[in-house]
Amino acid sequence: MTNIAEHDKNARHLLMGNEAIARGALEAGVAVAAGYPGTPSSEIIENLASVSGKRDLYVEWSTNEKVAMEVAAAASFAELRTMCVLKQNGVNVASDFFLHLAGSGTRGGMVIIPCEDPGALSSINEGDSRHFSRMLEVPLIEPGDFQEAKDMTKWAFELSEELRCPVMLRSVTRLSHASGNVVFGDLPEVDHKARFQHDGFILDPDTGIMCSAPVDYRHGLQQEKIKKAEEIFETSPFNTYTGPEKPELLVITSSACNLYTREAVLLLGAEDKVGILKLGTTWPLPPKLLEKHLAMTDKIMIVEEVIPFLEENVKILAAELAGTIGPKTFYGKRDGSIPSTNELNPDLVVAPIATVLGMTYEGVPAAYTEKALPLAFFNAPSRDLTFCPGCPHRASFWNIHNVLSLDNRNGFVCGDIGCYSMAMLPTGFSTLRTMHAMGSGTGIASGFGQLGRFGMDQPVMAVSGDSTFFHSVMPALVNAVHHKADITLVVLDNGGTAMTGFQSHPGLEIDAQGGDAKKLDIRKICESMDILVRESDPFDFEKTQQQMFDLMEIKEGVKVLILKQACALSPEKKHTKKFEMKVVEDACRGENCGCNRLCTRIFRCPGLVWDAEKGTSKIDDAICTGCGVCADVCPVGAIDRKEVA
Amino acid sequence: MQIAGSKELTEQVLSQDLCTVCGACVGLCPYFKVHIGKLAKIFDCDLEKGRCYAHCPKTDVDFEQLAQALFQQPYNGEPLGIYRRITAAKAGDKTGTGDFQNGGTVTALMTCALESGMVDGAVLMDSDGLLPTPKLVTRAEDVVKCASTKYMAAPAVSCLNEAATDGKTNLGFVGTACQLTGVAQMRLNPLEKADFVDPVNLTVGLFCTWALDTRQLMDFLSTRVDLKTITGMDVPPPPAEVFIVKTGETVVEIPLDEIRALVPKGCGVCPDMTAEWADVSVGAFEGKTDWNTLIIRTEKGEQLVEKAVAGGYLVLDDFPAEGLEHLTLGAGNKKKRARDNVAKEEK
Question: Which residues of chain B does A598 touch, with a Cβ-Cβ cutoff of 8 Å?
């Protein structure tokens, strides 16, 4: 892995987009970085944290995105360069503060970096935060390749300082997680000095108070900043045009779609027909630059992912400029040329360009598809999304599923965000019945917990991970307690923010930089609210299920069950086995009435496999983590566990 | 007998609300379990044929096959089923005293069966608080602890299934019609399992007009009495029309109509008042609350009764013709009601 804090100027490195962004921030002399883990953004903070000592940085995993943005803003107010990193929906979490921050303005350069997930590869939403830039009136820039990821990050800090407002730099999965060549620039000497000046004239941007009021005055100021950004963007080197002087078709694009468009035009051999206007500054759009390029041709295509943000903004300008540039035909999401959901790829861009140009292009020959589809269908093993071998969540949801089934009152679980979100699927016995934002499981449960008065007699459960508990479950829990909602919250405490790569959270003694942190105890927090709290090890089925039954028995009020068992991939557990597991073949009932493969058909830990020839289950020693849980799943005790000495 | 799997059992019985929680499908596999008087399917099982379906008394029961297997004669469809003789009975001195519902005949017979070695263990209905809980009893002196009627539908057969899984044989079983129908079907080894061993040597049936849904009864009673204080329940003979709940100090009378609302729908399609698929069947004796009606159905039943009388466990008396008439009428009415309800269902 490249050390992003190396001093070798002009050296060329293969960098992940997120590493390039982190390097750009270092080249800008960033002092503070805060974020909340979320794919595809997490590596930026991780990379910065790993060099925090060397580069004199303060880096933290904040409790949630709003707090992260507030922490980062404080540094800006104290005249330091600072950044906040989050995934697309994290911007929603932070957006209330973001609105007010845009109004108050900033001092030290402040860059907000949302890394987004078109196609929801590791999300349950396809949020597009670009609208926040227009909605909150802050400039938006989008790198179009890996070098730009670094260079534009550095520039974003300068831009923020020039405009005195936060700047949004947006990345997407295919930029954040793919890699490309990046030539390093200079790393500055760092000597960060923080001081918050607050006792000057109250409206003075350098020494007054930091506040979005008086609104009329500050809002006007904010709009002047946007005007100024427009001017700066007119000559930005990150807006580039490639193609003929009079193209048949002008494609306007940005971000990773720039790469798809370039490849599509190459594949078509249409370099002499298609011009590509790659925009690095996507809001506000520079009108003169757009006027110049829109005048080149009558056919305009906008290539972007998710929401037609760029398309709409270009169309507004085209309407305003209609007198000089004349009428245009637009191709994009509004007319269906570009898909309006999911991420794009070169094939999806080739097709509409070919159609507009009247060319034929067959990305994948029909005959190939015809052959490949059935082959893939019949030959490729079907693999569900699944919890890892030894995952405590599988055991937790086994307990929850069994208890709710036995209870037999059509009870249900409100889900939340983490690896355990997968309990919507068979790997978690399809236990989760609602699933929305971070913390929403408990909030929704709090609402369901009031519906007894309207005849709802189903038991209501919610689940929360340990990190999610601190992120946003706490306010929902306070609400539920205060209003005496009849719910049981099961906290799935696996000792870290596991899904995104085991980042720290307030329940741990360690912080992002590896330093000593004050550990908060979930049990004590709950007990301080007079909640009845029980604790169990989810691997202990009997105790855990009894605890659940006992808590559900208690009517009225919030009950919390904390299920503690470390993630199978946690540093403390990885590569260790507690038990040596073995299937006693003679005892295994296999597919017979009386079992019908409970372990490999229902429990389905990947460490258990079905030996069709022998008609028994067996342990896959290569991946079995030796947690021992399946021994308690087998109805006839045919799975042996022997403690590893 | 058409045998299907748990999917069909769910469709035909559970989803139709016909389950009477006899426990015939429980204790055989990890999929069906009972929790506080209610059957739950924990996960789907996709086997096309399962013992759950084959043993269930609420699927299509082949009475002909059962009659041949148990009595070596054709099914007669009579109100009281196939039997050898009917007599009045009550516990003798050797049985001792206990909290008998009526004459203590069941306690007497099972105590004798255990002490004489006719069975090595017996599945009886004990209680955990108010909750009926089946129990495998192996010591004769423990039989009396399970005396008295529980009135709630309870999974007696699950306990027998579990004992059989543990390899236990030569067992006695006491239960109501649905439970005994489940046991009788289980003994036929309908899935023709090669390693099947009949775990049962003796069955004692209990007369049953209906049972009550455990959870509904508990909810119902909890609004009237402290459940923890309940010491017993009784339905006195007509024309009382009340359900009696005894607590430490008081007796609470509840109109029988209110209680009948808590009868599972599955009881309404049951054609069997006197537990026809047993070696002997025992019920109340109209007019004499400290005696029982005893129907002896099989040769084994006859041997047990003889042994019990000879050993002083049981005392017999003549059963009056008038009583037989009443009993037949009652049992016939249940058959008719079941037929009517099934016809209604099928419409």
Answer: 30, 43
CATH 3.90.930 fits B215-260, yes or no: no
Is A602 within 8 Å of chain B by CB? yes
Residue of B nearest to A399 (CA): B42
- Asked if A550 and A597 sit in the same domain, the reply is no
Q: Angle at the Cα of A390 (from A384 to A396), degrees rounded to 5?
A: 85
Q: Please tell me whether residues A211 and A91 are part of one structural domain.
A: yes
- Tokens in use for A514? 């590896």
A370 within some domain = no
Q: Minimal Cα–Cα distance from A483 to chain B, Å? A: 25
Selecting from A401, A407, A595 the residue whose C-beta is nearest the C-beta of B30 gives A595
A619: helix, strand or coil: strand
Is B301 buried (19+), middle (13-18) or exposed (0-12) by CB count in 10 A? buried
Shared domain for A26 and A159, answered yes or no, is yes
CA dist A195 and A202 (Å) reads 17
Residue A136 · residue A98 · CB < 8 Å = yes
Q: Which of A419, A437, A549, A414 is nearest to A95 (CA)?
A: A437
Give the relative orientation of helices A215-234 and A146-163 as an angle to the nearest 10 degrees: 140
- The total number of structural domains in chain A stands at 4
Cβ atoms A58, A104 nearer than 8 A: no
**Phi (first) and psi of residue A11, to 5 degrees:** -70, 150
Amino acid at A599: C
Which of A400, A596, A600, A602 to mutate against chain B (most B CBs within 10 Å)? A596
Query: What are the tens digits of pLDDT across the range A123-176?
Result: 999 999 999 999 999 999 999 999 999 999 999 999 999 999 999 999 999 999
Question: How many Å apart are CA B215 and CA B34, to the nearest integer?
Answer: 12
- Separation of alpha carbons A592 and B48, rounded Å: 11
Name residues of chain B where pLDDT drops below 70.
1
**A405 and B41: CB-CB below 8 Å?**
yes
**ipTM of the complex in this document:** 0.94
**A51 and A88 co-located in one domain:** yes
List the single residue in A408, A593, A601 with the smallest CB-CB distance to B29.
A593
Q: How far apart are CA A60 and CA A38, in angstroms?
A: 14
Give the residue extent of every domain in chain B.
Answer: 54-213+263-346, 215-260
Nearest 5°: CA angle at A67, between A63 and A70?
A: 155
Domain span holding position A42: 12-234
**H helices within A437-539, ranges in order?**
440-448, 466-468, 474-482, 522-528
Contact residues on chain B for A602, CB-CB shorter than 8 A: 43
* A54 and A146 share one domain: yes
B265 reaches A (C-beta below 8 A): no
By the 10 Å C-beta count (0-12 exposed, 13-18 middle, 19+ buried), A585 is classed as middle
Please work out, in degrees rounded to the nearest 5, the angle formed at the alpha carbon of residue B154 by the alpha carbons of B149 and B156: 95
pLDDT, tens only, B227-256: 889 988 988 877 889 999 998 888 999 999
Handedness of CA B36, B41, B42, B47 (dihedral sign): positive
Query: What CATH number has the domain bearing residue A612?
Result: 3.30.70.20
Tell me if residue B250 falls in helix, strand or coil: coil
Q: Which residues of B touch A591 (CB under 8 A)?
A: 47
